TrEMBL record:
It is found in: Membrane. One of its GO terms (cellular component) is plasma membrane. InterPro entries: GAIN_B, GAIN_dom_sf, GPCR_2-like_7TM, GPCR_2_secretin-like, GPS. It comes from Pygocentrus nattereri (Red-bellied piranha). Gene3D superfamilies: 2.60.220.50, Rhodopsin 7-helix transmembrane proteins. Keywords: Disulfide bond, Membrane, Transmembrane, Transmembrane helix. One of its GO terms (molecular function) is G protein-coupled receptor activity. It is a multi-pass membrane protein. Signal peptide: none annotated. The chain crosses the membrane at residues 105-128, 140-160, 180-201, 222-240, 260-287. Residues 103-300 form the G-protein coupled receptors family 2 profile domain. Pfam families: 7tm_2, GPS. The lineage of its organism: Eukaryota, Metazoa, Chordata, Craniata, Vertebrata. This is Uncharacterized protein.
Amino acid sequence: MSNSSLFSTTISTMKLLSTVVSATLPRTRNTSLTKPVNFTLKHTAEFNLSGTPSCVYWKETDWVTDGCTLIETNSTHSVCSCDHLSTFALIMQTKPSENDHHLDVFSMVAETLGLVFLVLTLLTFALCRKNPRVINTARIQLCISLLLAHFLFLLTQILLKSKSLQPHKLACAVMAGVLHFLFLSAFVWMFIEALMLFIAVKNLSRPKSKQRNFLNWKLLTVVGYMIALFVVGVSAAVVPEGYGSEQCWLKQDKDLKWSFLGPVSFILASNTILFSLIAFSLGYSLAHLNSQVSQIKQTR
């Protein structure tokens, strides 16, 4: 299809480098392939090899890269590999945004600083004197999950920028699965920490003999990671091709994002409710502990 105006995109800096090619299989609605298909696109004009084109397919209103990889390119032709049939083209970012570059640099610096402070936090937990009545399991595991997740994310971004990860689809999919597990684990530990805080506040208003004991830290560790592992395991079993997008994350066209957004939304909503209950219980408990002290001051 030589009339590229039919495929107007919302990204103004995107330029089509080839004619649009569409491929289908007759008498079937299945567009996925057991093996990727390779095809060569001829450039409509020569371009500077310092830039890198992208193999894309048309999805409703925009060109997307999920499932398509650039194998090789020169000044006149490019070879693409896609795991499904669709309407394909070759595009290039004509004017790389300076703001995007600054944002990438800021993101890298922020990730590095975050890793440093997470390490310092874990050292604080390891070296400072422990209170036997306080269980820091959830906070420690939260820091470990975030440390590993952000380290792997930073490593993935570095490999993507060096173009050394794109050809290895399996490695990219595995990294996406591990990132899914680690970030999901972090949210699970946030929920467990909120739940333990709620139990601690409720114990303030109970006699010591009727206070509920906290869960064993070993059991907490198993439960915290098994929940995230279960979600990722089910997701990988149901939609195995949903991992490994162009950014080595969950593919947008497979609706696998809800295996992350769903649990996260549930945890955020639950923690909001727990926070409200904790604030109410804390105010009530402190008011009864010392009636001579202002309830507002205690609650603050």
